[in-house]
Amino acid sequence: MLVVEDEMMIALDVQMMLEDNGYAVLGPVGSVEGALRLLDDTRPDAAVLDGNLRGQPVEPVARRLRGLGVPFVLSSAYDNATFADHEALAGVENVRKPVTEARLMVALEKALS
C-alpha cells in the first residue's frame, strides 16, 4: 500500500492505520516526484493519496497509478468538487481529513474490490 502525504504526522497516522489492518506500507512519500520515482520500480496493490503535496496537485501520481491499474483513494481536506476537473481524480473516493480508520478501511475495501 503506497501512502503519499506531505504532512509527516498525518502520513504516520495513516501508515499505522494501514499496518494495524495487515497492509505493508510503501513510503510514506511526501512529494509528487518521490512518488513517481517509487512507482518506477514498484507496483503497489493500492494507494492513499493526499490531493495536494506542497502546493502541487497529486494528479500525475494518480495518472501513473491508473496506468498501472492500481486502485487508490484520496485523503484530502479538499472536497470532491475540487477534483472534478482532474480526469485522473474524478470519481475517486475521498476519505477526507481528519482520516478515520473506519472510513479509510471501507474506502480501500471498495477500491480493491
TrEMBL record:
Domain Response regulatory as annotated: residue spans: 1-112
Alphabetical keyword list: Phosphoprotein
Superkingdom assignment: Bacteria
Positions carrying 4-aspartylphosphate: D50
SUPFAM superfamilies registered for this protein in UniProt: CheY-like (SSF52172)
Matches recorded under Gene3D superfamilies: 3.40.50.2300
InterPro entries, per the entry: CheY-like_superfamily, Sig_transdc_resp-reg_receiver
Protein name: Response regulator
Native organism taxonomy: Bacteria, Pseudomonadati, Pseudomonadota, Alphaproteobacteria, Rhodobacterales
